[in-house]
Amino acid sequence: MLKYRKGLNDMPPYDGTDKFYNIKVNANECNMAMPPIVAERLMARLQSVPINRYPGEEYDNLVDQIARNFKLQPENVFLGNGSSELIEKIFYCFGGSKAKKIVFPDPSFSMYHIYAQAAQADAVTVPLETDFTLDIDKFVTAINDNNAALAVLCNPNNPTGGALPVSDIQYILDNIKTTTAFLLDEAYVEFYGRSAVSLLKDYPNLIICRTFSKAYGLAGARVGYMLAARPVVAMIGKSFMPYHMNSLSLATADICYQMRQEFVPHIQIMISERKRMAEQIKQLPGFAVFPSETNFLLVHVNDQPELVELFEKNDVGVRFFSPDNKRLKDYIRISMGTREENDTWFGLMKAFSEGRG
Ligand SMILES: *Cc1c(COP(=O)(O)O)cnc(C)c1O
Fold it and tell me: In the chain, how many H helices and how many E strands?
């Protein structure tokens, strides 16, 4: 027997599928190619990255750009290998024993459970209502009753797609203790358009995480960023290795961020596809779709396993939830692909609905 650390054996493996599909709509990635003008600039830039040096300038350039965009200081910004790394480290920094409570709604991003476990903290979940909305008073009560070290909110929420207005975020911050760190995961905020960044100046316990993986289509580069008050960034920064980001990914994100206007039409297409597909699904008997402010839809399906099987047979990968997931076992989550891809999976869905009718 190898002497692994305590608790590792009980950690579940990540259940995300890395399988290749002809139509891959299971991971909320962007299915459109990078705008050609961005790709061209990026290729030129990558040629001049000093790969023999540890990343310094590439890191600082991106931090400066992000800080400037939000009218913050560079000391308010920290970069991570995807926002996943940042979120994992934030859980680590506020964990360390079962006495440390980390409170978040459920269903939400499935990795929160795993990060809490890895941080040896105690995860306390607040169930969403039957319509998958969050009762913010219940959330506030759970945070305060547990004297939470960390509270986490994904807004808009994955996998349900719903979003709270910034006034609700402010209400939560106004009603929890200033000794509770509040992590707001804004992975999908570009599709929603209403960020809580403006609250940072008034709430020194607020931490916002963002990513280049979804709206910017850089899931493979692994770049995310955290925005928070200077002392919070300094403390959480201590948990990272020196030179934790690689220059190639930093240069990639830097070019995309400089050229972020070029991504606006992409984001608009994903939003309009989401609206179009939600309308179409609504017309199908046996299906229900939840309001979404993201690039994906959560769909209730009678006979979910049969539909997933039909998708698999046709080389379409959607996110589905296992039979032991009580809240989500009758649902699938579909990210918006290209118009053509969306028409294809919808065709299968329609045939399924008619065949079953
Ligand atoms: C995709 C996602 C992330 C992390 O994405 P990265 O690729 O690690 O930046 C974080 N939170 C939520 C809710 C997500 O859906």
Answer: 12, 12
